[in-house]
Amino acid sequence: MLTGATGFIGQYLQKALLARSEPVKAVVRPLSANRDLLLCGVHSILADLSDTPQLISAIADCKAVIYCAGSVRGRNLEDFRAANITGVRSVVDAINRTGSEIPLLLISSLAASRPRVSDYANSKFLGEQEVIRHAKFPWTVFRPPAVYGRGDREMLPLLKLARKGIVTPVGPPQQKFSLIHAEDVAAAVLAWLESWPACREQIFTLDDGHSGAYDWREIAETASGGKYRPFRIPGSLLLAVAKANLLLSGLFGYAPMLSPGKARELMQADWLCDNESLTRATGWSPEIDLEQGLEKTFDNHYNQNTER
Ligand SMILES: NC(=O)c1ccc[n+]([C@@H]2O[C@H](COP(=O)([O-])OP(=O)(O)OC[C@H]3O[C@@H](n4cnc5c(N)ncnc54)[C@H](OP(=O)(O)O)[C@@H]3O)[C@@H](O)[C@H]2O)c1
User: Would the CB of 8 count as within 6 Å of ligand 1?
Assistant: First the structure.
């Protein structure tokens, strides 16, 4: 069973699971505007994440549960709660009530390692805690760093600028961060499906294996073929814009991507992780470096022919 199948990462998971001939049952909220993003061959179950009876019957004959639903935009902790915390608890309760040993993989985030930075980070941390404290079955948590690829809406504007060599560093000059392409996240999930007993009750990070992670110069030069035009944004300006956006989101009723919490995430000196433990446990290792990943993200020919 898969939650979040209609999201950016979820779509890569659908594709990878179907390619492996795994039957996929996707729990999709009845009011989802994205039901058309379910691939042919995916069995959909319309249910809210709070609908325990429906979840129990959906889980009953499943080999594993992959929780990939999540909110990545919001004004405050409440906005993140349903998908990142209570939804997780509800799925944990449903598996507990089946009394089975069905393994659960929670797609959390590297942000969960710093819950004080933002409401999003806190919600991911609290979601993990729901699993750690209440699951009576085998579980694993993945903490990916920033994930990119075709279909992503959050990083795409930045990557489009980077293709012109333009980057907008907002953190300290030596800021470093890990990245991973969504196809590699999906491949890691497949590896977990095969070897979850070796991953029981553990939290794993995963990245693209690039030693020392990335700085803005490397991203710009890789994306643009050598150009580097930094357009530094002072942290104070970013925070001011984020606060204004938060105000506007309250007035106009939208979920803001750029909030003061997101600004604080962007200003961290680093977001670093590696694959060592996950590779040891599953044998998985990433295959897509930044150059290839950007090609896959932007190459129309590739997209038209292979990423349907
Ligand atoms: N993207 C990244 O860079 C990144 C990095 C690290 C971790 N993650 C984590 O990976 C997960 C997926 O991220 P994503 O980028 O794929 O997000 P996304 O594109 O925004 O997709 C979110 C998915 O969750 C579903 N969802 C949201 N709120 C829900 C709710 N209240 N009830 C049921 N379903 C709900 C959405 O369904 P609808 O289609 O109906 O809206 C969608 O399928 C999240 O947990 C995120 O924290 C993402």
Answer: yes
Task: Enter the pTM of the model.
Answer: 0.95
Please give the structure tokens belonging to residue 102: 């069905």
- How do residues 33-81 score in pLDDT, each as one tens digit? 999 999 999 999 999 999 999 999 999 899 999 999 999 999 999 999 9
Query: pLDDT at residue 9 above 60?
Result: yes
- Domain locations along the chain: 2-300
Q: How many CA atoms lie within 13 A of 136 on its CB side?
A: 8
Alpha carbon of 225 to ligand 1 centroid (Å): 32
pLDDT at 211: 87
- Which residue's structure tokens are 């089975």? 100
**Widest distance between CA atoms in the chain:** 57
Tokens read off for 305: 């022919």
> Residue whose CA is closest, atom 46 of ligand 1?
70
**Residue 20 identity:** R
Q: Sign of torsion, CA 262 264 267 268? A: negative
* CATH number, domain 2-300, options 3.30.420.10, 3.40.50.720, 1.10.150.20, 3.30.420.40: 3.40.50.720
Cα 237 to middle of ligand 1, angstroms: 28
Q: What is the pLDDT of residues 227-237, one digit of tens each?
A: 999 998 988 99
